[in-house]
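[SOLVED] Need 3D model of a two-part complex

Original post:
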Amino acid sequence: MLRDLIIKNRSYRRFDSSFKIPEENLKNWIELARFSASGRNMQPLKYLISTNEKTNEQIFPNLGWAGYLSNWKGPAKNERPVAYIIVLNDKSLATNYFCDDGLAMQNILLGAVEDGFGGCIIGSVNKGRVAKLLELPEHLEILWIIALGKPAEEIVLEEMQENDIKYWRDENGAHHVPKRPAKEIIYKKL
Amino acid sequence: MLRDLIIKNRSYRRFDSSFKIPEENLKNWIELARFSASGRNMQPLKYLISTNEKTNEQIFPNLGWAGYLSNWKGPAKNERPVAYIIVLNDKSLATNYFCDDGLAMQNILLGAVEDGFGGCIIGSVNKGRVAKLLELPEHLEILWIIALGKPAEEIVLEEMQENDIKYWRDENGAHHVPKRPAKEIIYKKL
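Solution:
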């Protein structure tokens, strides 16, 4: 059921890095993104997949992890993502990609979860350095990097208290994420 | 299976308007949106649901339908959406909502499809007039309007030919949508 999949689809930041993701799975998830809606049907998004260990090691230091966990510098070596999908906008096709990025990435992540994997959308990226590292041509702009792997952390959803949006980790390492309650996000029903 | 749901989730613009959507379904879909990821966990998105016939009639003329179908002025009276979800950004919480809108709307639409309904994200909206009509306070900015109902049209996915992005309708009224092939959107695999 979709609801179960959506609840299981958390922003995972720690993985079992001994578990690799087959190329076929990654391509299947991008196929799901391909079927998502696109503003004016322009479809300007492109994807670069990396499962290459050396490239992944070079990408890693350019990513910001979990801003609110100030004492945590990101996943340890054995917890790191085993694959990245770099989401690109092809500016030669369109400068405005509307909400295509979110629509497409949600499909990718739900696909990953259905296959027993998971990931996290990272927006805090040193884009200039990653673009150089990946030798991206000028017209391909990095929008987001999806870090992927076999999740190795527990994530607990909670009702938000007193407008405190900060996620936090308990003494057992479980990651707690406060969510605004339904009555707060449904502004009105007419 | 997720893939089937994603393929069934097309941008439907013609509905059987005699089929109403129960309020419970609409709330369940927003619950799915509530569980989507949010940049910095800010969760600034809010939702206004309208199933009110009079309000829906007033919203309708403020929407642009299917830009490439220049001879089609939008759904006929008996084909119109029976519900709208107005996706709002609460600017008092955050001005930057990152890709939250796409992530959340994908969940809403997949939920709708799973329940036998469907919808279309509309970006071509006379936002000023809709905001006035709905008496929205200053801090709630209209991002998108999702038109929803029981789909009453056939949509055919096709491989794009010669970079022609325009969707079109055949003589039987089926709506054809060209999609860029996988080999074109996967820029590189490392």
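Edit: The first strand of chain A starts at residue 45 and ends at 50.
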